[in-house]
Design brief:
Blueprint (H helix, E strand, L loop, with lengths): L15 E5 L11 E2 L8 E2 L4 E4 L2 E7 L12 H25 L8 E3 L18 E3 L6 E7 L14 H13 L5 E7 L8 E7 L3 H11 L3 H4 L1 E3 L6 E7 H6 L2 H14 L4
Parallel strand pairs: 8-9
Antiparallel strand pairs: 1-2, 1-5, 3-4, 4-5, 6-7, 9-10, 10-12, 11-12
């Protein structure tokens, strides 16, 4: 943080805030600071906080995007572009998954607790869905500063940060997925499936099961940490695969984890 930086007016420099999982109908933009809640209120298994007779979840501060300081006007414009990218990706996934679940929907995950999406939606990641069978946890990144060379640096660079966030925020039984793209209308979007190293063979088995052409299009790269394994492929390639194959793969993962 530079000496001229000003703490974010919403999160007070903490970068993350807590929002209620089931807000009341008359509540809008309700949140509390993480520092206001005792550590014992956090449940490591559910990744939720129980405080004041209700449950809360931790999210990046929507005002500063997890920076902790007030954003310059240029960065606020970048935030608007990022939200537009999330909406476009959400529309693509909705069209794809409705082939097997016609009533499902995908939306940007609300940054505050005053959202009508709270009931029946898995409010994790950048995109959420009311689908009961969708196996992925979705993070969307529209930035200039990532590069494929990041995979070969000791700490993974910007892509390494994407990987760590997706693993840390992913609910149990879901497959972390990062959709990342450089800004610009002609830029190609990529999908990165991320698992801890012990699930490497499982992820490879999924890819081989869902498509006969797996070895022709997949890219497997080291991710800066020996305990992490990732597979990268173009977004359009993922969406060309039958969603039912991914649904079955997600069910197999849940069984492997002992989730009913």
């Amino acid at each position: 943080m530079n000496s001229d930086d000003i703490d974010c007016k919403k999160c007070d420099g903490e970068k993350r805030i807590l929002v209620p999982i089931k807000p009341a109908e008359d509540e809008k933009k309700v949140f509390i600071l993480v520092s206001q809640v005792p550590k014992e209120a956090y449940n490591k298994k559910t990744k939720k906080y129980t405080y004041g007779g209700r449950e809360w979840k931790e999210v990046l501060c929507p005002r500063c995007n997890g920076r902790g300081t007030e954003l310059p006007n240029k960065n606020r414009n970048n935030s608007k572009r990022g939200k537009g990218f999330e909406r476009r990706v959400g529309a693509d996934f909705k069209k794809w998954w409705q082939q097997i679940e016609p009533d499902c929907d995908f939306q940007r995950t609300p940054s505050s607790g005053g959202s009508a999406l709270a009931e029946g939606w898995g409010l994790y990641g950048d995109l959420c869905t009311n689908s009961k069978t969708f196996p992925f946890h979705l993070e969307c990144k529209l930035e200039k500063i990532w590069d494929f060379e990041d995979f070969f640096t000791p700490k993974g660079g910007r892509i390494g940060a994407y990987i760590k966030q997706s693993l840390a925020d992913c609910p149990l039984g879901k497959i972390p997925m990062v959709i990342f793209c450089h800004p610009g209308p002609s830029q190609r979007a990529y999908v990165m499936l991320v698992v801890k190293h012990e699930w490497q063979l499982f992820l490879l088995a999924i890819l081989e099961a869902v498509t006969q052409n797996y070895r022709n299009f997949h890219v497997t790269l080291p991710c800066g940490e020996s305990s992490i394994f990732a597979v990268v492929l173009p977004l359009e390639t993922l969406l060309s695969i039958s969603p039912s194959a991914w649904r079955d793969a997600g069910a197999a993962l849940a069984r492997g984890l002992g989730i009913k």
